[in-house]
Write a structure and sequence with these properties.
Blueprint (H helix, E strand, L loop, with lengths): L2 H18 L5 H15 L9 E4 L5 H8 L5 E5 L5 E3 L2 E5 L11 E7 L16 H14 E10 L4
Parallel strand pairs: 1-2, 1-5, 2-4, 5-6
Antiparallel strand pairs: 3-4
Helix pairs in contact: 1-2, 1-3
């Protein structure tokens, strides 16, 4: 297990404890991190334009940054608008707002439908989910890839 992988598992755990008050779920967060690690194999290049829908505080994007990816964007109703080296964070839910750009790789992990969350900006109806997927397709470059890891929604 790489240090970057261990950092991602730890960041998952800290986020869910802080935001949702959950007890440590290291086994579940290790599985989540393995999904992200596997996803990296499908990203075309380190310079790919990557969008994460539902980035929370950006732990997946920081993992990708530490792996050498340099063109990262995260959208979430939880995060504040800001830019850091290689990562732009945008506070939005594009089921409800306009969003523009072109991406080589778009991914979301467990966020299309969240049910009761701490923030109404990230609650999506079935109609919203259909709209989000349509927008993903619109934002995707001609040879781009969409990666879903959702569980049962």
């Amino acid at each position: 297990m790489s240090d970057n992988f261990k950092t991602l598992v730890s960041e998952y755990d800290e986020f869910y404890q802080e935001v949702y008050g959950m007890e440590s779920l290291l086994d579940a967060h290790t599985l989540n991190a393995k999904q992200i690690e596997k996803m990296v194999e499908y990203i075309p290049s380190k310079k790919s334009r990557i969008l994460e829908y539902g980035c929370a505080n950006g732990f997946n994007l920081r993992f990708l940054q530490r792996e050498g990816f340099t063109n990262l964007t995260g959208i979430d109703g939880y995060v504040e608008n800001k830019s850091t080296k290689d990562i732009e964070y945008i506070k939005a839910n594009f089921a409800k707002e306009e969003f523009f750009g072109t991406y080589d790789f778009i991914f979301c992990r467990g966020v299309l439908q969240q049910g009761n969350t701490h923030n109404a900006l990230i609650k999506n109806s079935d109609f919203d989910v259909q709209k989000i997927i349509t927008i993903f397709k619109k934002l995707l470059d001609k040879n781009g890839i969409i990666w879903f890891s959702e569980g049962s929604v």
